[in-house]
Amino acid sequence: MDIDQNIPIARFENVGLRYGLGPEVLQDVTFELKPGSYHFLVGPSGAGKSSLLKLMYLAHRPSRGLVHLFGHDIATASRDALPALRRSIGVVFQEYRLLEHLSTFDNVALPLRVAGIRESDIKRHVEELLVWVGLKDHMSARPPTLSGGQKQRASIARAVIARPSLLMADEPTGNVDDRMGYRLMHLFEELNKLGTTIVVATHNEAMVRELGHPVMRLGAGTLHVSPGTKTDSFARTSPQGLERGLPHRLTRGPGAFE
Amino acid sequence: MMFSRRTDLPLDKDPLSRFLPWLIAFMVFLAALAQAGLIALDVLAQRWDNGMASTLTVQIPADPDASDAANARRLQTTLNMISETPGVMHARVVSEAKVLQLLSPWLGVVQAIDVPLPRLIDVETAPDIDLDARILQQKLARTIEGAQVDDHGVWLGRLIEMVRTLEALAAGVLGLILLAAMSTVIFTTRTGLTVHAEAIEVLHLTGAQDSYIAKQFAGRAWAMGFKGGVIGLVLAGLTLALLGYVAGRLQAGMIPDMSLPLVGWVSLAILPLAAGLVAGLTARLTVMRTLRRMI
């Protein structure tokens, strides 16, 4: 999808969300994500962080209000238009949501397969990315045999393989140790430098302070955005064990697969 | 494509999909028998129709008071009148011995009999001319007292009516089997959609179109339908062969030749393909319709 730098990646206006006939879990949420921005999404458990992300990755439609993604009004977008929007969005789910019957390779290949990419191209790019995230020896392993960290890396690889314009992660550091958490954050920083818009939902206030990106704070169902205090100290310290640089595939930044 | 081996959904492992080939096999078996019956009956009805529509039988009662010579003259006159009728190709007097043979179920086997026998004339009409039996009857009756023309119409009509009824029944059975097969596939597919709802959502969220997901279900259903169809057809073939063997052993003229024409065998052979196609299309439509209701 072509990204117009003047059109917000996501724009929410007075968005409310309720499940069924339940109470509104989100009320009057208003914000805008500029292309290339990086936001943290924080708030206590149950404040609606996951619900807000679900609206952004098109797992739900809002009960009220206006949601624009890449300039498209989600309320009026036809069902057939949604897959194209979703292909520009990468998600690292909280519980990874890898398909257990598929190998690591096939899981990561999924976004390219649904987009109808040639199998020979898929093989080349998926292998390159899996080598880069350190899963070279686990390509044919199925998720149940992977460790938590390995699953997470597979999940991240799947989220970024199609070079999304918008990358979201739901509590990506929740289930892994600090070292893995920083490694992951480093990857997100690198992708952000290449122009990927990023939203990370997290409980980790220390990390939020350290990285200094703008913060979207959810409380009692409504959202407040505060500007970042970015010091750029993190990006200079490359975590140990991470291969230098990004895989060739990702260095080209977001955009349609060619 | 339809023969794709790789699927993103573990449809092979669904308990229900293990039953589907056998359910389809059972239905194709029944469908093959119904279809074989339908074709055989159709062939039979046509043969009767063609064979009997061009024959007439004329019956002349014997006059017990007349001399044999007078009776013979009467027979010859009738024969001449029939032969001169337009549309008659051939007329032949049925011999007295043959008449006795025809009557043997009632009279027993006898060489001669004192009772004056009616005489029969076999008439063959031209196949392209529709000779009206009633007009011939009126014409003959004016000269020959008591002459009866029988075009087997009533008997043949009832027989063909019965065959057509059986055919409609067989076609109805085929239709019901088709409905049952489609319902089974719809039910199996819907169950599969529920079982794999989580994986399907992930596929959706990674940008899969409904048709991408439907293709996986359709490919699987096609394979199972075809597999079941082959099993069912083999079973039906064995059954038909056995039926043919048993019928052949009767060796009586009671059962007419029921062998299937080539087109019949071909229509049976495409049953597995049809089963696969019906299963695949039904699964595809079911998935597309169900997913329409999701975001």
Shape of chain B: elongated
What is the spatial order of strands in the main beta sheet of chain A?
6-7-8-3-9-10
* Domain tally of chain B: 2
User: Largest protein interface?
Assistant: A-B, 25 and 20 residues
What is the CATH topology descriptor of chain A? Rossmann fold
Whole-number average pLDDT of chain A?
85
> Which percent bin holds the helix content of chain B?
55-70%
Number of strands of chain B: 4
Any idea what the CATH superfamily of chain A is called? P-loop containing nucleotide triphosphate hydrolases
The number of helical runs of chain A is 9
Computed structural class of chain A? alpha/beta
Q: Output the CATH class name of chain A.
A: Alpha Beta
Averaging pLDDT over every residue of chain B, what do you get? 83
Give Rg of chain A in angstroms. Answer: 18 Å
Number of strands of chain A: 10
Q: What is the level-2 CATH architecture name of chain A?
A: 3-Layer(aba) Sandwich
Protein model, in words:
The complex is a heterodimer of chains A (258) and B (295). Chain A is of the alpha/beta class. Chain A has a single domain, classed as Rossmann fold, CATH 3.40.50.300. Chain A has helices at 49-56, 82-86, 104-114, 119-132, 148-160, 178-193, 205-211, 233-236, 248-251, and strands at residues 10-18, 24-33, 38-42, 64-69, 72-73, 89-92, 166-170, 197-201, 215-219, 222-226. Chain A has a 6-stranded mixed beta sheet with strand order 6-7-8-3-9-10, sandwiched between helices. A 4-stranded antiparallel beta sheet of chain A has the order 2-1-4-5, covered by helices on one side. The longest helix of chain A is centred in the last third of the chain and has 16 residues, at 178-193. Chain A starts with 9 loop residues before the first strand and ends in a 7-residue tail after the last helix. Chain B has 295 residues and is of the alpha+beta class. Chain B is 68% helix and 7% strand. Chain B has helices spanning 15-53, 68-84, 96-107, 133-143, 153-195, 197-205, 210-250, 262-269, 271-292; strands at residues 55-60, 88-93, 119-125, 148-150. Chain B has a 4-stranded antiparallel beta sheet with strand order 2-3-1-4. At the A-B interface, helix 2 and helix 3 of A face helix 6 of B.
